[in-house]
Specification:
By secondary structure, the chain is of the alpha+beta class. It is built from eleven helices and 13 strands. It binds adenosine-5'-triphosphate (ATP) and magnesium ion.
Length: about 400
């Protein structure tokens, strides 16, 4: 084989096509070049012609340095000498970004594997050259992506630490707000109680008779200061719950007794609107909860139901036990709530009133307190409603197996 190849290559002509070994060389995917000990090209396959844009005759017998960019040519003979001293099969310039140059002067990226070879004229070297332009581009792209990823990770770390600082500021502001509200509410309650008390005294005419006009005015003072007092109470409740300072006094008590207590205050309201107010507490259930707070929850839900149900409608309170959980529902035939409001109505100060609907009294605190209280008991509250048909407020509360005290 050696003779065949050597003969054909030294002649600079294309080797005979039926030579099996030559065809093997031609079939190789890489460009193959044999370089003799003086650095001259003595053999090449047609991949090299395609890759570099030279004809075979233009390369045979020429210095191999012509295939590399000019800036590397000066140092190359020394590299060749070094290789001759330690000839092994290895990648050339491992880890280096090897470049080759085409006949038209354009450069491209290559990988070159070199191995010693017993040539015709002595020790030569066989080089397998592969055009790796696409791979290098992909590697470059991956490098750039990695760099931008690293940059983003750094940016994210900065944003995260900024967020942490802001979170701490928000927490602090929240604490300050709760403290402020608690203190303010306390400060407001004292003079308000005095106003209510003195207005009561005046109304009872213990300090002397009142004219009809004065009676009306005192009535207004009483009404407004009671309203203000209940608003302050609500705000105080919310700030206490949000600050985690509301202590619940858990006890076991009968649900029907608690319901009766609430209904006795609400019956006149329902009667004034001819609303049918009923309960369906089939079995006497025992709650394990804060009795005062449960009454507050029931009061809020039932008073809403009466408030938002037109005259001659009906309001029903239903309860049942599900294991150790007690399920309570307040069902009305009132104005209802559109689906997009189902969550919002539980937010502080959120009220939903259609323009055509007459303005009902209220501040939008009742349901938010109710939800906080129910959740504080470990329960849940939600609403099902259809505008124009009525609403059903459902909640769960912990039950008890203890006998009622
Ligand atoms: N049973 C109900 N039927 C229809 N809408 C209701 C019902 N209950 C509550 N809502 C709607 O949810 C809103 C919020 O209720 P919430 O009890 O928090 O406030 P409010 O009753 O308006 O005022 P407050 O309870 O502070 O006196 C109400 O303004 C109303 O739009
Ligand atoms: Mg309410």
């Amino acid at each position: 084989m050696k003779e065949d190849i050597a003969k054909s290559s030294s002649l600079g002509s294309r080797p005979v096509a039926n030579n099996r070994y030559w065809r093997l060389l031609e079939a190789a995917p890489d460009g193959i070049v044999e370089v003799d000990d003086s650095g001259r090209i003595v053999l090449l396959n047609s991949q090299v012609e395609k890759m570099f844009g030279y004809r075979r005759e233009e390369l045979l017998g020429k210095s191999v340095e012509m295939l590399m960019p000019e800036r590397f040519r000066g140092r190359h003979p020394a590299h060749r000498e070094q290789y001759r001293a330690h000839s092994v099969i290895r990648p050339m310039g491992s880890g280096l970004d090897l470049r080759a140059v085409r006949a038209d002067g354009t450069e491209f990226a290559v990988d070159i594997n070199i191995s010693p070879f017993e040539g015709e004229t002595g020790g030569s070297v066989v080089c397998a050259i592969r055009d790796v332009t696409d791979r290098r581009l992909a590697e470059e792209e991956i490098r750039n992506l990695n760099l931008s990823l690293e940059q983003r990770t750094r940016d994210l770390a900065v944003i995260n630490s900024e967020l942490e600082v802001r979170n701490r500021q928000v927490e602090k502001a929240d604490r300050l707000k709760s403290n402020f509200l608690t203190t303010m509410s306390h400060e407001l309650r004292t003079p308000l109680n005095a106003i209510v008390g003195f207005a009561d005294l005046l109304a009872r005419q213990t300090a002397g008779p009142l004219t009809q006009k004065q009676e009306r005015f005192v009535g207004n003072v009483k009404e407004s200061s009671r309203h203000l007092l209940s608003l302050v109470d609500d705000i105080l409740d919310i700030s206490k719950i949000e600050a985690g300072c509301l202590d619940l006094k858990f006890e076991s008590f009968s649900l029907s007794v608690a319901v009766d207590e609430v209904l006795s205050t609400l019956r006149p309201l329902a009667a004034a609107k001819e609303i049918d107010l009923t309960t369906d507490l089939s079995v006497d259930l025992t709650l394990h909860a804060d009795r005062l707070r449960v009454r507050q929850v029931l009061y809020n839900l039932l008073s809403n139901a009466i408030k938002f149900t037109p005259a001659k409608g009906s309001v029903r309170l239903v309860s049942r036990a599900n294991g150790s959980v007690i399920h309570i529902s307040v069902i009305d035939t009132g104005i209802g709530i559109p689906p997009e409001e189902n969550e919002k109505i539980f937010e502080v100060f959120h009220r939903y009133l259609t323009p055509t609907q007459h303005v009902c009294e209220g501040t939008g605190l009742g349901l938010s307190i109710t939800r906080l209280l129910v959740e504080q008991h470990g329960g849940k509250i939600w609403v099902e409603s259809e505008p124009g048909k009525g609403s059903q407020f459902h909640l769960t509360m912990p039950g008890s197996r203890d006998p009622v005290r």
